[in-house]
Design a protein that fits this description.
Length: 74
Amino acid sequence: MEKNEETNKLFGTLFGSIDLLNESHLDAILLTMDKDHAIHYLVESVKSAHQRGAFTIGESEVISKAIRTLSKNE
């Protein structure tokens, strides 16, 4: 099934990895966020900041370990 150009347009992207379909999609993310989603968004935001060079190597190591620790299945 083919999508037309109109349905392929995005409203925006969060942290370079989470596509937003429209303004309502952003609202839905904010209104339905639970602990698991919050961790996911925090991890994605830290990855994005790292890619932009926001952290030192030492800071990146600590953050990487923290992400791995939080991402483990409980």
